[in-house]
Amino acid sequence: MDIYLIKLIIAHLIGDFFLQPGSWVEEKEVKKLKSAKLYLHVAIHIALIFLIFLSFGVWKVALLIGLIHFAIDALKLLLQTKKNARLLFFVDQVLHFISIVAVWHLFYKGSLDISYLKETKTWIFISGALFLTLPTSITMRVIIARWIPDNQPDSPKSLQNAGKYIGILERVLIFVFILTNHFEAVGFLLAAKSIFRFGDLKEAHDLKLTEYVLIGTLLSFGIAIVTAMLTQQLIA
């Protein structure tokens, strides 16, 4: 990757995540375009580009990125509500990175190498990773539906869909670990999950729940391992 693009990305990450306190974000959400913190935030982004490049010769780049950053943030503040705040956060970041790449291309004639998207190996990898998300979650739910234990009135409440997302994350991690030849990390992940689960199962005193969790965990790990090994063979 081009060093100029890396520097622009670093400037953005520092400005948006390290040098923007939560109090600034809250003030901007309340005062919108009247917030002084919005303009200070943009000024910091411009200053960071000068600092990281150690040159005032990049003033055109810094100014253009600052103006685009202001426009994106201002639009986000005007459109943001409690319901769409999470979505707009990701849209905001995607637009910032797109603008950085565009400015980099404009001033430094840079281009991103996306030739890997034409390779069969890339699409095999993507297919394997996607299979381990929702398709595997739905498949597992169908397989173990007959063993789902009844909810007890005094059972602790869990986060909505937490189990599904935990399963997706663990399978994707296993997939990555195996494809990068870090099999020991799979054992570490299984041990870590067992430690966290042990306390809950011990307190529950429910044999059916313990067996249900064990079946789900082993099935999830098994599918992830088989998928990863199959993918490894196909891309070899």
TrEMBL record:
The keyword Membrane applies. Keywords: Membrane, Transmembrane, Transmembrane helix. The chain crosses the membrane at residues 38-56, 62-79, 86-107, 122-144, 165-192, 212-231. Pfam families: DUF3307. It comes from the Bacteria. The keyword rRNA-binding does not apply. This is DUF3307 domain-containing protein. The lineage of its organism: Bacteria, Pseudomonadati, Bacteroidota, Sphingobacteriia, Sphingobacteriales.
